[in-house]
Amino acid sequence: MEKHRQKEKELAYEKIANKHRPKPKIWMNSLKAFVIGGLVCVLGQALMLMYIHWFGFKPEKAGDPTAATLIFISCLLTGLGVYDRIGQWAGAGLAVPVTGFANSIASSALEHRAEGYVLGVGGNMFKLAGAVIVFGTLSAFVIGLIYTLTGLVR
Predict the structure, then answer these.
(1) Which segments cross the bilayer (predicted)?
(2) For the segment 54-68, what is each residue's pLDDT rounded down to a tens digit?
(3) Where would you tag: which of 43, 48, 70, 146 has the fewest CB atoms within 10 A of its CB?
């Protein structure tokens, strides 16, 4: 009997809370994420073209310095505290894989720097990145093995 009353109270509270909870601005948030994510991709494309035309990279190799530059920019903006402010406004738009991952690692390093470089910065950066690196490497190995065994690679 007591459990039933408690459940009714919880449902009544949830109903009242839902009535007063602000509604998410889904369309506006989606538009901001689309525009900011698109601008990050445009920046990446511009950097790639710069590396091809000004530094003589071949198109198939220009992606490496482009990704490194985007990672550097993301880490620099994280360190300056700008990335988080833009991220609050843009939402998922800055979660574009390279920049978002670099931001999360740099944030982790900054947060734990008081604990020292090895145990604080290094240890906590790799807690976050370790799973990505391990499973990325493992999946690349498995896919390479499948390609080799099926004769898809020459």
Answers:
(1) 33-54, 66-83, 90-110, 130-153
(2) 999 999 999 999 999
(3) 146
